[in-house]
Every structure is written in C-alpha cells, then in structure tokens.
C-alpha cells in the first residue's frame, strides 16, 4: 500500500477505505472505496487542489449535487484531503459504455435503443433542472449490471447551469461529440448547450450501433494527429457521415439519426420530439415516459430544486 498522500489520499481516513484504483481522468483520478460507517461502496474522484481547475470543479459539484435521478450517479459528499478535493459518489460496478461497445464491435439495434432511452431520460431531466451536460459520451456513461444493464451518467465537469452561469460560449467537450455550433462558436458568441447535448446524444447512438465515430473514418488513422482533427471537424461542420455499409439499421433509426445530426440547432429535433419519435417509443417499459415529470414534481415538493 502506498503511503504517499498525493497518490493515496484516503490513507488513515476515518470514514472511507480505498479498495482499488478505477481510472485516471484529465483532472485527477477515481478510486473505489468503502464507506466504513455503512459498508456501502462508493467511487471517489480526487481532483488536485489548485486554482486552474476550480471553475469547472465548482460547477461539477454545484450542478451534480442537485441531480437526483435513477440514471445519474448520485453525488454523496465532497471533502478535502491534504492535496485533493474529493467527490464521493454512488459506485457503478459495470464499467462504462465505451468498454461495452468496443468489446461488442457495435450493439444490436434493440440494445442501443435500451441505452439510448435511458440516456435521453437522464439528459431530459438535467435540462429540466436547468443543467446542460456538455460532455455526453460513452466514457461518461457508466453501467450497473442487472438483468438488463442500467446506465448512470457520471461526469458533470463541463456542465452549465442556465440560472446561475452565463450562456455557454466556450468550446468544451470531446471533439468527436461536438456539435457544429460549438466548433464554430467564436469568442463572445454563445450557443444553446441543450441543443448541443441533443447532437452529442446522436453521436452516442451512432457509436453504440457501429463502434465507430460518425465523423472519423478508419482511413484517417494514417494522418498526423492535427490533420486528423481538422478533417473530423470539417466533416462535423458539413454533417458528412454515413453508417458503415456492413451495419444493418432500421429506417426508423436512420430517420432519428438524420433528425438529430442537423447542423442548424433551431432545425434540430428537440428532447421532447425525440421522446415521441417512433424508434424511441418502441419497447419503452410501461410508465417510464412519466418518470421525469413525477420525479421533478416530487423533488419540487420536497424543496430539492
Ligand atoms: P475524463 O476526463 O477521462 O472524462 P474525468 O476526470 O472527467 O475523466 P469521470 O469521467 O468522472 O472523470 O470519471 C473517469 C472514469 O472513472 C469513468 O469513465 C469511470 O471509468 C470511472 N468512474 C467515475 N465515476 C465512477 C463511479 N461513480 N462508479 C464507477 N466508476 C466511476
Ligand atoms: Mg469523464
């Protein structure tokens, strides 16, 4: 066991005991731990205490804390260690959707729909809470392994709250998932973070189906990194994608993708329209469509919002 407090921040902690390292992210690392007071397992994200990251970290905590939803990893508490700020949250044991899709080489359409439905309910709830996620991607979508795996969104590091923070204007997110208006946003120009989230959900659907990025091509791998990025961003701007020829996808599903991957945000399908689309509503479990409004009413009554 490493005694260095920079690498092992839970060393000697009265409440949490480290189980193992889970992942290393851009701003820090994530460990699996046990809450000794309850025996419950948690994931703890450690972010180095420094000035530069504080803007995003503050948003991550303020926004994430308010989001209480079956498809969002619940934030439990925030505490400080000698070198880190620690965010303790619900532990999702099934890995992330990126790993699942990479292993599968592309999910069957009905499995992709199952995850997509859950994703849309999670993002719809965030939007109704006034939070745009701005980093919707497979790696930020965790799995809980039950008979049919459930998803839980985990990362609100780039999220934006419409009530307390200015309109989104910065180019945050992950390049392959960026909407055209986010790429072309210039200084001082803002975009609708919610519509940009809709675009990223479309990219997620494409990746789930094909295990490839819609605006990347296998032949790009021969290009230099900067050139690869340039080519991909140009394809996003001109919405230049097609499904791999060997992948069989229903016309309804192609229609939904076509309505999501629209360059002009005002012409793009909305969250509410997605939830009425024929492909989306197929095999939707009973009562699920009412879940968000019931949750929001409950939370409003309890004064959570
Ligand atoms: P990145 O910049 O790579 O996205 P990040 O710093 O934004 O990382 P997160 O996305 O929140 O951090 O977490 C990184 C990874 O840690 C996740 O992809 C997942 O593998 C693991 N992880 C995070 N939270 C949890 C959790 N609650 N339960 C289980 N694993 C988790
Ligand atoms: Mg992340």
What report would you give on this structure?
The chain has ten helices and nine strands. Helix 3 runs antiparallel to helix 5. It has helices at residues 54-66, 97-104, 109-128, 180-183, 193-210, 225-237, 251-260, 271-274, 278-281, 291-301, and strands at 16-24, 28-35, 41-48, 75-80, 84-90, 131-132, 141-144, 150-153, 160-161. 34% of the residues lie in helices and 16% in strands. The chain is α+β, with helices and mostly antiparallel strands. It has two domains: 16-90, Phosphorylase Kinase, domain 1; 97-288, Orthogonal Bundle (Transferase(Phosphotransferase), domain 1). The strands form three sheets. It has a five-stranded antiparallel β-sheet with strand order 1-2-3-5-4, covered by helices on one side. The model has no long low-confidence stretch (mean pLDDT 92). The chain is globular and about 55 Å long. The protein binds adenosine-5'-triphosphate (ATP) and magnesium ion. Magnesium ion binds next to loops.
